[in-house]
């Protein structure tokens, strides 16, 4: 995968976290490393204690945004299976995995995150492209 594609993927991943968090009234900032090595979504309210009930939604949102980038009409069952596989092969960050409770969240959580992101997809795309452009200019 070339640098442009890596930064695109990371941008969608981090913006996925951002938009699902904002759905629950949690706001923060996103960042993508210009070398395409990592990114983050830092919640301003993280220390104040994000409810354990909300954490899985926010934590899984990055991977779900990546899956939607590949296939917008993503099936929740397929996404849940893909997520379980990604966890098994170590393709989920330790921070995201911890937020998910150490394993794949329920199919209901995955379905709701898909619904939230699909509903906001135009805005997600605009924000991810903007984030990518900032990273590429550095």
Protein model, in words:
The protein is mainly alpha-helical. It has one domain (3-137). It is 65% helix and 7% strand. It is built from 7 helices and 2 strands. It has helices at 3-23, 46-49, 55-70, 76-88, 94-99, 107-119, 121-137, and strands at residues 28-32, 39-43. A two-stranded antiparallel ribbon has the order 1-2. A hairpin with a 6-residue loop joins strand 1 and strand 2. Helix 1 packs across helix 3 (55-70) and helix 4 (76-88) packs across helix 6. The two termini are 19 Å apart. The model has no long low-confidence stretch (mean pLDDT 87).
**Rg measurement, Å:** 14 Å
Helix count, per DSSP? 7
Distance between the termini: 19 Å
Order of helices and strands: HEEHHHHHH
Strand order of the largest sheet: 1-2
Unreliable segments of 5+ consecutive residues = none
Specify the overall morphology: globular
Number of domains: 1
Structural class: mainly alpha
Helix content: 55-70%
Biggest sheet record:
2 strands, antiparallel
Total E-strand runs: 2
Beta content comes to 5-15%
Average pLDDT, rounded to a whole number, is 87
Fill in the keyword field for this structure.
two-stranded antiparallel ribbon, 7 helices, 65% helix, globular
């Amino acid at each position: 995968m070339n640098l442009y594609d890596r930064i695109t993927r990371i941008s969608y991943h981090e913006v996925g976290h951002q938009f699902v968090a904002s759905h629950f009234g949690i706001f923060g900032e996103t960042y993508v490393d210009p070398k395409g090595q990592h990114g983050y979504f830092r919640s301003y309210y993280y220390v104040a204690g994000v409810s354990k009930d909300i954490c899985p939604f926010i934590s899984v949102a990055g991977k779900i945004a990546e899956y939607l980038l590949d296939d917008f009409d993503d099936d929740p069952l397929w996404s849940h299976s893909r997520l379980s596989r990604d966890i098994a092969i170590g393709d989920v960050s330790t921070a995201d995995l911890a937020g998910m409770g150490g394993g794949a969240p329920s199919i209901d959580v995955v379905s709701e995150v898909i619904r939230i992101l699909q509903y906001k997809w135009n805005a997600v795309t605009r924000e991810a492209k903007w984030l990518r452009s900032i990273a590429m200019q550095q």
